[in-house]
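Researcher: Next entry in the queue.
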Amino acid sequence: MRGLILAATVAACVPMAMAADWNDLLRNGLDDWTVLGDGHWRLRSDAVLTATFGHDRQQELQGTHDIDREQFVWWSTRQSWLYTKKEYEEYDLHLEYWVNTPGNSGISIRDPSQASCAVAERPDYSCTPSKQGYEIQIDSEYTGNWSTGSIYGLARAREGLEVGGEWNRINIESRADSIRVYVNGVLAAEHPGDPNRPNKGPIGLQLHDVHSFVMFRNIWILEH
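Model: Structure for this entry, 224 residues:
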């Protein structure tokens, strides 16, 4: 077990130590990404990527007619995603994130639909990224059903790996025969992959709902 933790810790530090071998996915700002949905994604001058729903979403409620519960749920849970324009197959992905508490976010891999069901006016949860490809969960006391680092719907992560209210690290190993997720240097979850799902696809970052605020930084990838 000690060897596994040590290997995971080294893996989490690799991007900073071997930047020449890794590709910074924010090196061109957001030119290599596509915004989906009406979230506000902004890359600050300190290289921190922020995502929130601004006043545009709030103004949807300021009409002359009352809305019913179903309409409110659609309004509050419609997501926004930021997807790479390039598709990736086998790689190591490193990133750091900060999310409000309670808050929810996620990382999509191998999703050819680019979250089209999640950003729709009426989200269809039967075909969101976790069903089309894979979603690596980020959950800061949001529900607790799938802890941060879980491969949503397939492999639950160990609990207690995330530090609430702080920057946290996630490393994802995407291989043809396996997916492994590390949170703050510790193996959180792994899965052999679903043979009926794609082996390649873009990488996506999630703004989960109108109440969530998330930031990302140091998004690095090493292709194999």
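Model: The chain has four helices and 13 strands.
Researcher: Noted, moving on.
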